[in-house]
Specification:
Elements: H1 10-24, H2 31-51, H3 59-77, H4 82-105, H5 112-135, E1 145-146, E2 149-150, H6 151-172, H7 175-191, H8 194-209, H9 215-238, H10 240-258, H11 265-282, H12 293-300, H13 314-343, H14 351-365, H15 375-388, H16 408-413
Antiparallel strand pairs: 1-2
Helix pairs in contact: 1-2, 1-5, 2-4, 3-4, 3-13, 4-15, 5-6, 5-7, 6-7, 6-8, 8-9, 8-14, 9-10, 10-11, 11-13, 13-14, 13-15, 14-15
């Protein structure tokens, strides 16, 4: 594992500890996460005091974080349950404060982006091992979660760990990353998570399709992606082991959207929650009911034995909890990142393309999960912002790396 940190730079290690603690802990409120946050804030405070200056080139991200938190507080005051809403404000605030400190640190340590991404690869593997070793590698064959860890979380981490690993494998040409890709891929399959395959397939498809600006090559790459997708589906539906793990659940999910055949309880529940959410949203369009209050509404209806469900859909959850305004504030960052990517889009494998692929995967899978309070998702959005919006000029230590800016002139001449 290559760490781009100077030996005397304790702040960099504090960031790594924070990321790993968040990924490995069973919940964001775990004592390990709390300690890592205190450590990060304390070390960063000392770091900036000693440095006697702060690089605010990531001010756009920090401004977005402040506006989001202010709106969440406003919604909490007017919430159906203010106590529930303020709990969610604190959850998101802890994440955004830590991310903002990282955003202030990275621009002066440009190689640290590589360290963060490598940490995500290993963090995914460690997280999976913490589940599979005590519970067994087929634990998710008959259950969707263990104590404190869901199959989707393992699938989410492993999928992005695999994508980042294969990116480094192709750009650096090191066999280690092919091994890390294979390990994450195996753990992804064992998670039996349907979304995990989307988290894996979408970034890879985006990187393959957009790796060229030539229209003919783009069409060729689209055809390749479609064929690879069909092959993957054939394997999932025809290989007994894969069908038992994922294929049957994927089949019932498709039936649910088409309204035909057998539908699993999970898909049926998700579709019902979307319908409920749309109706609740209509009664408070602009500012919603406050963070986490979707759960209280479903609990009041007796859903899930009176414990309630979150929406399992970030778009619906945001609209119900924070209204149209909160929805726009949250997804404004995603929209700006997409615009920024296409403004500096160049062909070839580069870090921009990787982060754009991960962003598109998050946007697609937000239909099936809630991410607005996910520290992992927020960290990816931060890295995406630092890379795509010219906050850092990433140069990895490899002659094979086609980095974001160093080969810009060459790319332009070849078009």
């Amino acid at each position: 594992m290559s760490l781009s940190i100077k030996k005397h730079d304790i702040a960099g290690y504090a960031i790594i500890i924070y990321i790993l603690a968040y990924m490995l802990a069973p919940s964001s409120g775990h004592i390990a996460v709390q300690i890592s946050r205190v450590l990060l804030v304390g070390v960063m405070a000392l770091y900036f005091i000693r440095k006697n200056e702060v690089n605010i080139s990531a001010w756009k991200y920090i401004l977005w974080a402040i506006v989001l938190l202010v709106w969440m507080c406003f919604c909490a005051v007017k919430a159906y349950s203010s106590s529930q809403a303020f709990d969610y404000v604190l959850t998101v605030a802890y994440v955004l404060i830590c991310n903002s400190l990282i955003a202030l640190y990275v621009p002066d340590h440009k190689d640290f982006i590589e360290t963060i991404l490598i940490t995500l690869i290993y963090g995914a593997i460690f997280k999976a091992l913490l589940v599979y070793i005590p519970e067994g590698f087929l634990v998710f064959l008959n259950t969707r979660g263990t104590e404190g860890v869901s199959a989707n979380t393992i699938g989410y981490y492993s999928a992005f760990g695999a994508v980042i690993a294969i990116y480094f494998a192709l750009s650096k040409g090191r066999r280690l990353y092919y091994l890390l890709f294979a390990i994450n891929l195996i753990f992804l399959i064992l998670s039996a998570s349907r979304k995990a395959f989307l988290f894996l397939g979408i970034p890879l498809a985006v990187m393959l399709i957009l790796s060229s600006k030539n229209p003919v090559k783009i069409i060729r790459n689209i055809i390749i992606v479609i064929l690879m997708g069909l092959i993957a589906l054939l394997l999932l539906f025809n290989v007994d082991f894969l069908y038992e793990l994922v294929g049957n659940r994927l089949e019932t999910m498709i039936n649910g959207f088409l309204g035909v055949g057998e539908v699993d309880a999970s898909t049926s529940t998700r579709l019902s929650l979307i319908e409920y959410g749309i109706e609740w949203f209509k009664d408070s369009i602009w500012y919603g009911y406050g963070g986490g209050n979707f759960v209280l509404f479903t609990a009041a209806m007796g859903i899930n034995s009176g414990e309630g469900y979150y929406a399992h859909n970030n778009y619906i959850e945001m609209l119900v909890d924070f209204g149209v305004i909160g929805f726009i504030i949250f997804y404004l960052l995603h929209f700006v990142l997409i615009i920024a990517f296409f403004k500096k889009y160049q062909k070839g494998l580069n870090l921009n393309l990787l982060m754009f692929g991960l962003l598109i995967a998050i946007l697609v899978c937000d239909y099936g999960m809630v991410t607005y309070y996910s520290g992992y998702t927020h960290l990816l959005l931060l890295v995406d912002t630092l890379v795509v919006m010219n906050t850092v000029n990433v140069k990895f230590k490899s002659t094979k790396m086609v980095n974001v800016n160093a080969h810009k002139g060459i790319a332009q001449k070849s078009l």
